[in-house]
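Appendix B. Chain record.
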Amino acid sequence: MSGEQDWSMRHIFRAGPPPRTEATHRTTPFEVFFDLVFVFAFIRVATFTAQSPTPLGLLHSLVLLLLLWWPFTNYAWLANQVRADVGLIRAGNAAVMAAMFVAALVLPEAWRYDNQSLAAPMTLAVVYIVIRAVYLALVWHISAGNARLRASLRLRVIPISVGLPALLLGAVLGGTTQTLLWAAAFLIDCVGGLFIAVSAGRAPLPSPSHFAERHGLIVIIALGESLISVGVGAGSAVTHGPVLIAALLALATALALWWLYFENAAAPAGQALSRIPVADRTRTGSIAYSLTHFVLIAGIIYLALGIEVVLAHMTHDPLQHPAGTPLGWTSTAVLFGGPALYLIGRALFLQLTVRHAPLAPIVATGSILALLPVARNLPALAALALVAIILIALVCYERISWQPTAAAR
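Structure tokens predicted for this chain:
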């Protein structure tokens, strides 16, 4: 074993305080695995929504995404303070992965109606409590000797404690009451936690490159796993010509979203974050990354759901309707609203970091939303093609006209 490997093993299994991260810290393989479990849960939200693609189902999926996203941002911040793959911090993160995996498994049964079993929603509520409790315990562990962080942690307990009874009560009551109570619980936790992070202050971000890289990885993992929706929707009909075309359009759409983030947004935004004084990075990181990336992830999940519905329509009666029957209003809104949300999130991300949001994506967003009534009357394949064409056209336009120096002002 080399000296470097020996040092790594000694620190990974050390029992004392975890080593602090440095400015050059990068995302570790353990963190990537952690993120994969979270993204698996994101995709399960799409599976849950596909069972009931109604406006109420979309509201439920939004609440569930909030449940998943806010803990992720907390643990991403934690891993920016100390090594996530060392000692007690690694053990805590492993426990959270196990809890999140259980949450992902029960997500499709998360909402309780009439006399349905209490097991799934109660399991989800308890899992969320475990994830939040482990986070508070780990922050307490790393804040030894840091009076400011200990003080903000005491404040952080307040919104969590207020929201948890509503979470448990909602699981018991079910129906509309569950929707209202769970939405309130997650909003109290998220908004309260964000307010405390921005005003009272978390510890500053010592490694802006790690924080930016971690959020970029969650985007690319979500884009990659969203392609699972192609296989789910296509099934054994993937060898049919129109279904194969739809699958390729789905790939082209995902590739366009990847290009729009990683080619023209991620790098200048990360550079802008690194130029911010250390004391002010928490505010920008909490808003520009934690909030806007939730919009990006929500857009990816809704697009994945829309693609799954398109392929399901095309495989329902491939002989009589090879291009699929027209989608319903809700399914069309999801297919078109997902990319629109993604472009809105990207524009906000750029505006909050590099202080410049190009006009073309805003025009593309307006075009997507304006064409929604038209797409409602098109075959499912044509609706998907329309989304892909708009996004590819936007990529081509930015490829020609994008000026990195202007974007980085």
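Further analysis of this model is presented in Appendix C.
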